[in-house]
Design goal:
The complex is a heterodimer of chains A (about 100) and B (about 525).
Chain A: H1 18-42, H2 46-92, H3 95-98
Helix pairs in contact in A: 1-2
Chain B: H1 6-24, H2 27-30, H3 34-39, H4 47-56, H5 62-73, H6 87-90, H7 94-101, H8 106-113, H9 116-153, H10 157-205, H11 208-219, H12 240-252, H13 263-272, H14 276-307, H15 314-317, H16 320-328, H17 333-369, H18 375-398, H19 400-415, H20 419-427, H21 433-456, H22 465-486, H23 492-502, H24 509-517, H25 520-529
Classes of the chains: A mainly alpha (about 100), B mainly alpha (about 525).
């Protein structure tokens, strides 16, 4: 079994999986590294360039992990969106109660 | 006061014209329907709402605020601005859940997540609060522009407030969210470019990167470039414990909805994205730009410190970044800089005009007053609400000096005691409308007690804000957790409907099993695999 799943069947991607948890950890670290890395790089600090480089690599890795899953969720969900929108309007306009 | 030449005024006139025209051009799209006027028809690629996230959160008062904390705490002050990082987790958790709910607003989402009277009370409360909050933010940001114009031209503050908010209202009234998003894109590009230019100019004026580091060394101030220069673990006014609390609030807050005041404009951008994937990337990249911008600003402010060390009065050093632009840019570029300040200003104003109008139109007018309203009528109500918000913002802006401390307290109420309930409503099926409502009410009482009343009478010591956060969270939980268990869970049919549509994260076991037993989850998979035709 692969550590990171990159091919998703519709419906399968709706569940919360390891890929989601890895993504949010990487995403948080990437934000911290980018914030510090940009500042220190502007001061031409060597550690700043290293931190910034690590932040950029993590950002790329994050997209590599989560993008196939997001594409699958989107394709599957958008097919049902019209039906859900009709339901939403009924709720807001009280049509369930008033007919 | 700053002297403007003909070329400077030319830049200003040209930019204002482009900004207004780029918004008004989308008049025909904006008037098509309620969905167009408030969500641009839910069809935007990720980079448009991302640029709007960035542009909205770059306001006229933002550089003053960032300058104040960096001048005082050095680069470590960057963590004060890190509250935006709730999007690190939200982009892949609560953004996905909210986008799938399709709710126009957070108030509408409450009626999808909860049911019955409690949900309706929440919708009424949240929407009323948001109409007020947007008017307040418009006044706050508007008067900041008034003060900048006073500094630059010697105008009375009300003049800058009214002129630029009114210019912005032209395209928001005409094209609604279409106008907001299209103008935000070009305003975001202009603002980002000018922030880079002014900051680099300031850095070079201070002697360049190496010169700044050398001069800080000579001044005995090298700690200013250390991002982790805290005053101790728990001691001083900037301890590690504060940093830890900020990391918890900022990052874990992404599991919830409404854990940051910025969630509400972001929610509109999430729903305007054409897919779940676009929504996620718009929030992640828009916030990444905000964090990068803060970092660039921080180094420019360190450059300002090298140029002007030892300023004691906060009101003087808070204008540091503006001074880098107005004092050091060459003639002709000053007007370009002011045009960018206008862009920064009206991108925030436009968002809050449209957002406040959406809460009024969708949640109050349509849901409670006239459920049968036509699309055309809703667009006109949206315009009327926009206009009323504009007038209200003038009123708030002009009395802002008197009420600021009260309203900052009100914002604190939003952040502290209901931070955890804002997460629980997303991740825990058993948390119900009564539990959530009681958390708001309990927080109102406890905040007064912990922040003002009890320290005033010496019953508890005055605590730093990070300690108040943990105490308020604990006290609130002592109220809303028992109330949640003493009241019935939400109706299972309602929860199953919400679960199948939104697929929330967390402790949803009983609801998931019920949905599975009803064949609702299996059906989704089977349709996807093509087994059911």
């Amino acid at each position: 079994m692969k550590l990171i799943k990159r091919h998703w069947k519709p419906g399968e991607a709706d569940d919360w999986t390891r890929e989601d948890w890895i993504t949010i950890i990487i995403s948080s670290i990437a934000y911290i590294l980018l914030t510090i890395g940009i500042g220190l790089s502007l001061l031409l600090q060597t550690r700043g360039f290293i931190i910034l480089g690590a932040g950029i690599l993590l950002t790329i890795l994050m997209h590599w992990i989560i993008d196939p899953k997001l594409k699958s969720i989107s394709t599957d969900y958008e097919a049902r969106q019209k039906e859900y929108l009709i339901e939403l309007e009924k709720t807001t306009r009280w049509e369930d109660l008033n007919g | 006061m700053v002297e403007f030449q003909v070329l400077d005024w030319l830049w200003v006139g040209l930019f204002v014209l482009i900004m207004v025209v780029s918004g008004v051009l989308f008049y025909r799209l904006g008037k098509r329907s309620e969905s167009d006027f408030f969500l641009a028809g839910r069809g935007l690629p990720w980079w448009l709402p991302a640029s709007s996230v960035y542009a909205t959160h770059t306001a006229t008062d933002t550089p003053m605020w960032v300058t104040g904390i960096i001048y005082r705490y050095g680069f470590a002050g960057i963590w004060y601005t890190f509250f935006s990082a709730w999007c690190a987790i939200s982009a892949f958790v609560s953004t996905r859940i909210f986008r799938r709910s399709l709710a126009y607003t957070q108030a509408e989402w409450n009626t999808l997540r909860f049911g019955g009277l409690g949900a309706e009370m929440l919708r009424g409360w949240i929407s009323g609060w948001q109409v007020f909050m947007n008017m307040f933010i418009l006044g706050w940001v508007g008067i900041a522009m008034g003060k900048i114009c006073q500094y630059l031209f010697g105008w009375e503050p009300w003049l800058g407030l009214i002129i630029f908010s009114s210019i912005c209202a032209i395209y928001v009234l005409a094209a609604g969210y279409w106008g907001v998003i299209m103008a935000d894109f070009q305003q975001g590009v202009v603002a980002f470019a000018v922030i880079l230019i002014v900051s680099f100019w300031g850095i070079m004026a201070a002697g360049g990167p190496s010169g700044i580091v050398t001069k800080l060394g000579a001044m005995g101030e090298t700690w200013r470039i250390n991002p982790f220069a805290f005053t101790g673990w728990f001691s001083g006014d900037f301890p590690f414990a504060w940093f830890f609390t900020m990391m918890v609030i900022a990052l874990l807050g992404g599991f919830g909805m409404g854990t940051s005041i910025d969630w509400y404009p972001e929610a509109q951008r999430i729903q305007s994205a054409r897919t779940v994937r676009d929504a996620s990337y718009s929030i992640w990249w828009g916030t990444a730009l905000v964090l990068i911008r803060n970092s660039v600003w921080a180094i420019a402010i360190i450059a300002f410190f090298v140029l002007f060390p030892g300023i004691q009065n906060a009101a003087d050093y808070e204008l540091g970044w503006f001074r880098l632009g107005f004092d050091f840019l060459p003639v002709g570029m000053v007007g370009f800089f002011f045009a960018a300040i206008i862009a920064i200003h009206i991108s925030t104003i436009s968002t809050h005009l449209n957002l406040g109008a959406m809460y009024f139109t969708r949640d109050l007018y349509l849901h409670y007053f006239k459920p049968k309203a036509s699309e055309k009528e809703l667009v006109w109500i949206g315009r009327l609400a926009t206009f009323v918000l504009l007038l209200g913002s003038f009123f708030y802006g002009l009395m802002m000096e008197e009420i600021t401390s009260w309203l900052i307290f009100a914002l604190w109420l939003m952040a502290a005691g209901i931070w955890l309930p804002n997460i629980l409503q997303v991740v825990w099926w058993r948390f119900n409308a009564w539990g959530y409502l009681s958390s708001w009410i309990a927080n109102l009482g406890f905040s007064w007690l912990v922040v003002w009343i009890l320290p005033h009478f010496g019953i508890i010591p005055a605590m730093p804000d990070y300690q108040q956060f943990w105490l308020l969270m604990l006290l609130g939980a002592l109220v809303y957790i028992p109330i949640t268990f003493m009241t019935k869970p939400e109706n299972m049919d309602h929860l199953v409907k919400y679960y199948v549509m939104s697929r929330p994260v967390g402790w949803w076991g009983p609801v998931r099993r019920e949905a599975d037993q009803r064949g609702l989850l299996k059906k989704v998979i089977e349709i996807g695999e093509g087994e059911i035709k």
